[in-house]
Amino acid sequence: MNYIVAFSRRIRPYQVVFIFLVGLCAATLAANDGDPKAFVTISSCYIQCDVNLPCRAILRGERSPEEFEGVLVEDTVGYDGTFFYAMARDPLHAADCLDVPAYRYQRILLPLVVHVLTLGYTELFPFAFVFVNGLSLIISTILLEDLLIQLGRSRWYALTYGLFFGALVGVRLSTAEPFAYVLVIGAIWFEQRGKPIWTIILMTLAAFAKEPTGLFVAGFMLYYLLERRWRDLLLMGIIVGGTFGLWQLHLHNTLGAYGLTSGAPPERIPYNGLWLIWTEGHFLAFLVLGALFIPSVVIPSLWGLWATIREFLSGEYHLYTCLYFAVLSFIPFVPFSTFSEYLGIYRLIVGMVFMHVLYAALRYPQRPLNYSTLWIVLVLIFPWILETNYTYSL
Questions:
Q1: Residues 47/49/55/59 CA torsion (nearest 10 deg)
Q2: pLDDT band at 363 (very low <50, low <70, confident <90, very high)
Q3: pTM, to two decimals
Q4: What is the pLDDT of residue 263?
Q5: What's the burial of 52, exposed, middle or buried (CB within 10 Å: 0-12/13-18/19+)?
Q6: Is the pLDDT reported for residue 293 higher than 90?
Q7: Running DSSP on this structure, what letter comes out for residue 266?
Q8: Which among 57-66, 273-282, 295-304 has the top mean pLDDT?
Q9: What is the rounded CA–CA span in Å between residue 258 and residue 105?
Q10: What's the CA gap between 88 and 38, in Å, rounded?
Q11: How confident is the model at residue 78 (pLDDT cuts 50, 70, 90)?
Q12: pLDDT in tens, 2-29
């Protein structure tokens, strides 16, 4: 026991995250013959930027593979990183390289950062994405450590987020979650230090990194409303809502659609997205994914909604109550397309995970906080996504 205590004093959670990230990157390169482009999972179909390719029509669901009988078409499907790569390569003219241009372009900040860091040199893109997302995850862990210490809790609970599968996936597959949520956690950190202007600035940036961070904007505004902080409420609404709204108008004018309405619509029945895996798919898939999602997504979200609503009804609330409730309010209505893709749902609940940690650290002595560490077990999924093998043949 003394050795464990001594070890915990010599090393910090963010250092554990750094070591894990180094191992993850090394394992990814080893599994893909040392090819750094494995981190951006480039789609050989979309990266050609030709909207008339047969594979594009099939991926959009407009044509069936049978229509191209006798013509062999091979494609590496890739993952969302391929769209960030395309926007980083040409931030102004990447629409033809994207599956849903307005939806992808609303997440423009990470590609812009990578483009600037690399001066547009594409060979450096994979390294830049890993660097930005990896550094973001490490900084997030450091900030969470500090927020936990403010609450008188062990900094080691920050590992629940630092080693959470949904956040780590962003580093492995070059998606925006680590970068977007370091801005959110930074905004929380500044709010706790009485610097709301920095909170507003960071939340504005976060909105351009990934639109689900808008739930945190709603949480901050709810808190300002309850606290009657009219100036901060007005500034948050005008600056964050105004700039993001103007960006949406620009997307509509140039690409013919709003980014916010280009994705799958939310379900109307709570948790119907999970149930549809059975009714629209296969019972076996429902059993497998349900075994993953019910304990790691559904039950925690239901518990969080119950805890926060009960707190509001009692007349007690905290910043963490408002933020946690705002994030949880969307979870029951997550669309089928997200629930049916396990990477997608775990990327989506990143905000729920670190808010659970902060809220549980604030309100509960031990159990909910200790249970949160079970999310770390999900890293065992990683061996299945180390190799870039999102392929199909037509």
A1: 80
A2: very high
A3: 0.92
A4: 85
A5: exposed
A6: yes
A7: P
A8: 295-304
A9: 10
A10: 16
A11: confident
A12: 555 555 568 999 999 999 999 999 999 9
Q: Round to whole Å and give the CA distance between 275 and 250.
A: 36
Cβ atoms 107, 211 nearer than 8 A: yes
Residue with tokens 């709301």: 196
Contact between residue 268 and residue 284 where contact means Cβ atoms under 8 Å apart: no
- 8 A C-beta contact, residue 311 and residue 321: yes
Contacts of 171 (CB under 8 A, 6+ apart): 21, 24, 25, 130, 133, 134, 137, 178
139 close to 332: Cβ distance less than 8 angstroms? no
24's tokens: 């993850």
Q: How far is CA 264 from CA 132, 140, 273, 336, 380, in A?
A: 28, 29, 11, 8, 29
Q: Which residue has the tokens 């798919």?
A: 281
The token pair that represents 348 in the structure block? 């989506």
Give me the residue label for tokens 């560490």: 373
List the structure tokens of 126.
């994979």
